## 1
Amino acid sequence: MRRRHVLPLGVVSLTAIVIAGVVGVSSYLTEREIDDHRTTVRRSAGEAAPAPVDIEAMQALPAPVLRYLSFAIPDPTTNYRVVSLTAEGEFRRPLTERFAPTTASQTIAVRTPALVFAATTPILSGVWARAYDFFADGKMEMRAKIASTLTVVDETTTDELNRTSLRRWLLESPLYPMALLPGGPVRWEAIDDGHARAIVSAFGLEAALVATFRPNGSLASFDAEQDGDLTTPYHGSGEHVTRDDYRPVAGMMIPHAFVIARSAGGSSYPFWKGRITSIAFE
């Protein structure tokens, strides 16, 4: 009869302590990376002087855009530079179909394209992934680590990903509608009474989304005009977002419910759906 080899309890305990120590150190280093990126976003925000309100430029906006900005920012002289927010909901990891409960935070510069998004989502029971997207000064960085330790996504700056991150800042802009006022990095093109094209230009890059507006003036959705590549190991900005549940915050109307999706071939594939749980402007 073969004897089973059983590791001594002390060895098992020591192994668990070592693993916990490695995860703890890795988690600390990952959070320090994210905090450093938040500092960079705040620096970028501080360096971007807000443009003075141009009444003539406001009146020249496409009609649905003017209705939206009047709805979202009754006082266009509202002057904030940074927004910080948290959200919770369900997230679908790239190239998978199952959604999992997820929490996220963002720090975003209002007047210039810069942001950091960080999220935590479970992989298996007791195992989580920590991921972040960062964009500032025209360059992006994207990482995902299982248990904040094992890197499974590590994307660095390319023209395509930088442009995707620029679009991400535009896609999130209904959360900080001052970014969409004339004189900033976004310009508008008329389409019809319910739609307009928003184009953001910065760092030698350009990205565009088509906005759909509701009769009450609120922005219902943003959509890219090109199909996304659904085979990538990351979602990037997504090509579609819907916004709902507008609430007054700091003198503005800010949407608190969202669904962000990839889109291709005439179909939409949601990957992040949830609600804003806190939002603050500085």
Note: The helical segments are 9-47, 55-59, 63-72, 159-171.
## 2
Amino acid sequence: MISHLVPSHIAAIIPYPPGKPIEELERELGITDSIKLASNENPLGPSPRALAAIREKLAGLHRYPDGSAYYLRRRIAEKLNVPMEGVVLGNGSNEIIELVIRTLIRSGLEVVIPNPSFLVYELAVQAAGGTVVSVPLKDFTIDLDGVLRAITHRTRLIFINNPNNPTGTVLSEEAFRSFFQQLPRDVVVVIDEAYIEFASRDATFAGLDFVDSQGPWVVTTRTFSKAYGLAGLRIGYGVMDPQLASFLHRVRQPFNVGTLAQAAALAALDDDAFLERSRAVVQEGLAFLYRELDALGVRYLPTHTNFFLIAVPVDAKKVYEAMLREGVIIRAMNAYGLDRYVRISVGLPEENERFLRAFAKVLRQLDR
């Protein structure tokens, strides 16, 4: 038995629940032509410019990647008007989150996390031996007053997912600024903006506006996985004070972002036409799905992202399994403590229509 060699805080971790590959689900259930609306992915696929950039780099894969990701970091800094020295790239924005935790957290220190929010926060804190302080959402939105009350002298990190996954809600700039001004000066706030490209600036704020503060310290994380359609390449970034960035660089692996990911992200970053099309597909899809769900009398939570929560009359896992048999993969929210909700990503028009047909059929079956 090897378990006695594993620290208790590692043994206690419940792994992140990934979805099964579509091919495996089809084999198990004997279905074909299934669609996946479970992981908040871009239904348009990758940015065309990104695909072209990948093809140009294929012949050079015998060389190590640029360990500093110089050109991509420079372009991000130019586009966002931030110091290049404050940009850190990661294997998805997940890695930036983990790097911040590994840099700042040790046993005895606390991390305040709204709940439910992105599951990786809690897992990464547990892996570092830190203590998670969970603050329940209020009306499906991050309770900033509750976060303030949860802060102690042991608090080093606070996670704010804006827009929040899985609820799709956002914080107003006024509310966040008031919260920010009340924080102790020696805490770090990670503002995870994985879905910020889908949110209206009129509805919320940009974490970048707070990065140059000299305490509380702010890290803003963003990803190329969602709006830019590069989830399979695993690339994201963080923007922070250059001094903090220098410590993250000491912790990260030397070649943590591959050549193809760097090239694709650099090209996608300037593919404004694709970004606008991605936003349009989501907005049009949401309008259609809301209208049809209203007609069915189904409750849902309006969103500022490319996904949203739908209330279901029975345990969400039952709905998930019934939808699987219809060839539609969605996400049951049981792992988030939302046992009567499923989450769906906005798909292409034909995928949205197929979801609605299957969902209406499943609801009728469950009502018998």
Note: The radius of gyration is 21 Å.
## 3
Amino acid sequence: MTDAERTLDAAAGRLAELGPIEAALILGSGLGALADQVEEARALPYAELPGFPVSTAPGHAGRFVVGRLHGRRVALMQGRLHLYEGWSAAQIALPVRLLRRMGARTLVITNAAGALNPDLKPGAPMLIADHLNFTGSNPLTGPNDERIGPRFPDMSRAYDPELRALARAAAAEAGEPLAEGVYAGVAGPSLETSAERRFLRMAGGDAVGMSTVVEAIAANHCGMRVAAISAITNAADGGPDQQPDTIEEVLANAAVAGEKIGRILARLIPALP
């Protein structure tokens, strides 16, 4: 048994004490307040799981929260892991695989992202239709465990079309405009140069961020259906009027978009298959 398998088994044993789940959510920068809405909540910090990676990013509490949200039994990752923290793609995949082992068949991912597309404005949500992996990493690199998933998983429908349709319907019901676009994932932690932003836009990206793609690959690999929504936090088109970005601005706009995403999720979660 590998170290990763031992860590996964130990963590699964601890989380099993919190009860079964139907769906899972990953909460990105500035979006952790959704965990406060969980009823009958039980929390378990990542640090209490032996060998488990611990989140160090600003605004990430670093714990699992299990309970009832909008009528469904869910597990939330209140804070995620990033490549820029020094974790490997395989380590970032670990909590996704853990959530699947707990019984989750659906994964809803949220993140904070910069707007490559000038039509996207800070404080708005964007439904992810597809992604571009510019991180240079893949969680499936190395030996494959067929008990988790196939060697060559299909990623042509990485963000489930049915779930995206449900998200659009939920946004309409909530009265929240919801753009849809392609998410470009980069490793970070430095924000992109203006030239990189223009390149990512030419490559087909609408928003750019430092998370999500590794988690989405891992989730598809282990048979989970994925939906993802970005909180647009800053203008990042790399044009002549590009302004410097600050983490304070990012977190402030993430909170604004997070309230909108919360209203969408209030309609989406009860409708999940």
Note: Residues 3-271 form a domain with the Rossmann fold fold (CATH 3.40.50.1580).
## 4
Amino acid sequence: MKPPPTNALVNRAILLTLALLVFSGSLGLGAVWMRQGISQAANESRAIHVQIADVERRLDDVNALVAAAVNPDALLKKNQSMSLGLVTPREIQVQRVNVSPELRLAEKRNREIFRVSVASLETPARAPSFQFVTAALR
């Protein structure tokens, strides 16, 4: 058997070398493209964090202004400066709420749903009817 010509072996080696260069070059370009995408995402994330910090700072400023406005001393000074003649409430005028305000408001809003209808009470043959509504707080 005759060995293959040497130029075919050289051509195959050159072709494999070119294929390896193209493959490694595409991998390198892909890596650069991914790094650029990661850098853009990091810059966007940094900008969003700056915006969040700015909003939190402004919210803290507003909370401080509200706290200063509802301070009892500030309210008394406003009362005197405007000559409103308001007085602080006495303890017997204060009504404390022990239940959750959300549940209390939901009960108040749905009170009519759970009432016995007047028409069902007037007819003794029928039992009182209720409307049942299931709801979740979430």
Note: The two ends are 84 Å apart (CA to CA).
